[in-house]
Amino acid sequence: MTLTKRDMLDTLPRYYDDSPEVDAIITTSAEQVDRMRQRARELTDQYYVRTATHGLDDWERVLDLPPRPNSSLEFRRNRILARLNGTAPATVRYLTDVVNAHVADKSARIVEYNGEYRFEAEINVDNVIDTEEIRRDIEEVKPAHLAFGITGVITDAIVMSGHEYTFGVPYPICNVLRTDNARGIADRSSMALVAQDYTVVVPYPICGVFVAGHERSA
């Protein structure tokens, strides 16, 4: 029994407690009252950024913020509060949410280089992203003294596709001694040293293709 139904029954004389007809009427009425109360709470929640849900669309429209319907409610609320307050909660978690608002698989992460006063967003290159939009959103919320960069990351297997090329190399070898008579008796004028060219095939492997994720023909 809901609290609303109990409250309604308490307003009736006790002899109605055993009436099935009255119980059915009270049950239906209590359910309707609860639904109306819930709708009223949902409506008033939209008036406040920290409790708004579907009303965030209106907040973003009024504040001229690019819509991020696929982002978390917390991220969208933080963007709205940042615009209203003129500052942003520039935590690593919040900056990660800002970047992942543009990343389909939400796998981007923030890497800090504190000694160099900069940070980078590492994003899987499998995602199609608009780097200019990411930079614009980050510049709006990051501390002014920190530099920002974007790094593409390959997370799939890397395939090195090798091709073997062969080159013919002429190599002269002097290995034939010939004379001009059949008997092999020769004088200095008839003796000749003959050079023959041999072609040596040299295999030479070259990695001509560098592919992430799958092999692709050259």
What does this structure look like?
There is one protein chain. The radius of gyration is 40 Å and the shape is elongated. The strands form 2 sheets. The protein has a 3-stranded mixed sheet with strand order 1-2-3. The protein has a two-stranded antiparallel sheet with strand order 4-5. The longest helix is centred in the first third of the chain and has 26 residues. Helices cover 34% and strands 29% of the residues. Strand 2, helix 6 and strand 3 form a beta-alpha-beta unit. It is of the alpha+beta class and 218 residues long. The protein folds into 3 domains: 43 residues; 85 residues, no CATH class; 55 residues, no CATH class. Helix 1 crosses helix 2. The chain starts with a helix and ends in a 6-residue tail after the last strand. The C terminus is likely disordered. The protein has 6 helices and 5 strands; from the N terminus they run H-H-H-H-H-E-E-H-E-E-E.
Q: Could you give a quick summary of the protein structure above?
A:
By secondary structure, the protein is of the alpha+beta class. It is built from six helices and five strands; from the N terminus they run H-H-H-H-H-E-E-H-E-E-E.
Could you list some keywords that capture this structure?
218 residues; alpha+beta; two-stranded antiparallel ribbon; 6 helices
